[in-house]
Design brief:
The complex is a heterodimer of chains A (252) and B (358).
Chain A lengths: L3 E10 L2 E11 L4 E5 L6 H8 L7 E6 L2 E2 L7 H5 L1 E3 L12 H8 L8 H6 L2 H21 L14 H13 L5 E5 L7 H18 L2 E5 L3 H7 L2 E6 L2 E6 L1 H6 L1 H8 L2
Parallel strand pairs in A: 3-8, 3-9, 6-7, 7-8
Antiparallel strand pairs in A: 1-2, 1-4, 4-5, 9-10
Helix pairs in contact in A: 3-6
Chain B lengths: L9 H4 L5 H20 L2 H26 L7 H17 L4 H20 L7 H21 L1 H4 L5 E2 L4 E2 L2 E2 L3 H23 L2 H11 L1 H6 L4 H27 L1 E2 L6 H14 L4 H24 L2 H4 L4 H16 L3 H15 L22
Antiparallel strand pairs in B: 1-4, 2-3
Classes of the chains: A alpha/beta (252), B mainly alpha (358).
Chain lengths: 252, 358
């Protein structure tokens, strides 16, 4: 059974049809990439899946649950984590605090327990702290641990954002242009990390990406779209030779 | 410069990072506890007032400094706390029941005020909370059967463990203990998921939502907790002033409270204490200034609120991180001497979400 299925999703902003009747299915354990020229509706699809936008029409199912109209903040608890195109971190806080906020979905204490810092609140904090360290180890973020986000280089921020998403222990990780702003070495590292995330943590990855090298290296399947409609779905080499895709990128 | 070697995760969870901190805070506690031995009653009263400001400040700091929501309505919570406590005492409710009830009542009112605030930030929220403050003041003025209207009401005398509250020493210790408990619970909150959710909402609402944080619930509970602390301060304040009248809780009080957290340093509990001391000292300084300055300047009507406003504006422009922020910079300067870079804090903006810092 597919992990995430979207059927005939449509969304317009006024007269702009951002997404028109888009259907796709993401299988468990794969890396699913969405490519397309600027304004194709790639990020809109992510925003629909993470419920920042309400679809005008269509339906989405995730892991057996209909998520077409669940509240935005419930998405994380269902197992979908995401990163943002221009990084949306908690600027004034340290990397550690950012990652601890990523543990929020695993919270079991009540407000009162937090207030009094009861033993179970302490146990939970220690557990969160340990799990955060696992993610820090995985993504090699040790040297940034105590630093405020405000002073970090862009590449590090991108990785912190992925780390924060991993702290949710999601089933599906949505990466919105993970390589934008990264230098070639960092992009190469990123491809290894994405492979690790899928292979070691068993997390399914969906990403919006412009770097075709990265897409071709890590993706199992690629969905190409332009002007809000799906052009083709297939593996990377099929997509790169698909006539519709070539026309969308290069013109006639 | 101190390097802390961390060998277990508990060190990131504990309240104090290292022995040095434990020593200095312990010393501070001893000094605060011993103060009644050496200070005369006037200063004890002033310190008690500083502690009360600080308790209200903890509440406002959680809202403004940690959740990023501005409030100009906190004088109302102070007033509601004070009046409901006094009314309960009048009904014969014992002190230790009345204070929690007044606090809880304020928290409920805060939660309700938080509801319409869900869709507002910055200046709009400030205006909305200001409107709430005016409504609360109007109700207090006109609900004469309960509040005594313009004539006000006397705060009944209360006893704590058989000790009369009107002795300065008892009242001093009461305020000190309550402040310590408030600071402790605020620190607990901030090192657990609830407090981190506040911070998440402050720094990025969109990210907070995708981390599974319910914006509505978080903002409302921030308002409720904030109002609760301020209401608690209000119930102590009632005993401090002894007689409640509407003119004790005005817009100027709200501005003073906001001034306290901004001047102290948004986003730190240290800032609350610095701000409260500042707020406690300011009237003395102004009174001194009135005596020293030529009467043409010293007797200008409205000098105090004018000065409050001016100081608030100057801090927002020149030191958005407040006294605590300045202290952190000075400490860093010594730590890193001679390598301190002036630009270290350039990228940090104020936490107060108004159009200026957006």
């Amino acid at each position: 059974m597919s992990l995430l299925t979207a059927e005939n999703l449509s969304l317009s902003f006024g007269g702009v049809h951002a997404v028109r009747e888009v259907s796709f299915a993401i299988e468990p354990g794969e890396v699913f990439s969405i490519i397309g020229p600027n304004g194709a509706g790639k990020t809109t699809i992510f925003n629909l899946v993470s419920r920042f936008y309400d679809a005008d029409a269509g339906a989405m199912r995730f892991d057996g649950t209909d998520i077409t109209s669940v509240p935005t903040h419930r998405i994380a608890a269902l197992g979908i984590a995401r990163t943002f195109q221009n990084t949306e971190l908690f600027e004034h806080e340290t990397v550690l605090t950012n990652l601890l906020i990523g543990q929020h979905v695993h919270r079991e204490t009540s407000l009162v327990a937090d207030f009094l810092f009861l033993p179970r609140a302490r146990r939970q904090e220690l557990e969160f702290r340990r799990k955060v360290e696992d993610v820090i180890d995985l993504l090699d973020l040790q040297r940034y641990r105590e630093q405020p986000i405000g002073g970090l280089p862009y590449g590090a921020r991108k990785m912190v954002e992925i780390a924060r998403a991993l702290c949710l222990s999601p089933k599906l990780l949505l990466l919105d242009e993970p390589s934008s702003g990264l230098n070639p070495e960092e992009t190469e590292d990123l491809s290894f990390w994405i492979e690790d995330i899928v292979a070691d943590l068993g997390i399914t990855v969906a990403m919006v990406e412009h770097d075709m090298n990265l897409v071709a290296t890590v993706s199992d399947r690629v969905l190409a779209m332009a002007d809000g409609v799906v052009l083709a779905t297939g593996n990377a080499s099929e997509i790169q030779q698909h006539p519709e895709v070539l026309r969308a990128y290069l013109g006639d | 410069m101190r390097f802390v070697l961390k060998t277990n995760y508990g060190q990131d969870v504990n309240l104090f990072l290292h022995g040095g901190q434990r020593f200095w805070y312990g010393l501070l506690a001893v000094v605060a506890l011993a103060a009644p031995l050496g200070l005369d009653t006037f200063y004890l009263g002033e310190f008690a007032l500083v502690y009360i400001w600080a308790i209200a400040g903890v509440g406002l700091m959680l809202l403004v400094g940690y959740t990023g929501l501005v409030s100009l309505g906190h004088a109302a919570f102070l007033a509601i706390g004070a009046y409901s406590h006094a009314v309960l005492l009048e009904q014969g409710v014992p002190f230790f029941v009345s204070v929690p009830l007044a606090t809880a009542f304020c928290a409920v009112v805060g939660y309700i005020v938080g509801l319409p605030a869900l869709r507002m930030t910055g200046i709009y929220l400030a205006v909305a909370t200001l409107a709430f403050e005016r409504i609360a003041a109007w109700v207090i003025e006109h609900w004469e059967s309960v509040t005594g209207g313009h004539f006000g009401m006397r705060v009944p005398e209360a006893q704590v463990f058989g000790l009369a509250l009107d002795t300065p020493v008892t009242f001093y210790y009461l305020c000190l203990v309550v402040l310590a408990l408030c600071l402790l619970s605020a620190m607990n909150l901030l090192r657990s998921p609830t407090g981190r959710a506040f911070i998440a909402v402050r720094d990025s609402e969109i990210s907070a939502q995708s981390m599974g944080i319910d914006l509505a619930r978080t903002k409302c509970s921030a308002f409720a907790i904030s109002a609760g602390f301020t209401g608690l301060a209000g119930s102590l304040f009632a005993h401090k002033i002894g007689y409640l009248a509407p003119d004790a809780f005005t817009v100027q009080t709200s501005i003073q409270l906001l001034l306290m957290v901004v001047v102290g340093g948004l986003g730190s509990l240290h800032g609350v204490i610095y701000g409260a001391i500042f707020l406690g000292l300011l009237p003395q300084v102004i009174a001194f200034g009135r005596d020293v300055l030529p009467s043409a300047i010293g007797e200008i009507p409205g000098l105090e609120p004018g000065l409050f406003g001016l100081i608030l504006v100057l801090f927002l422009i020149f030191e958005p991180l407040g006294i605590y922020g300045r202290w952190v910079k000075i400490r860093l300067w010594f730590d890193e001497f001679p390598l301190y870079r002036k630009s270290t804090y350039k990228r940090q903006r104020s936490y107060l979400r108004t159009e200026r810092v957006r």
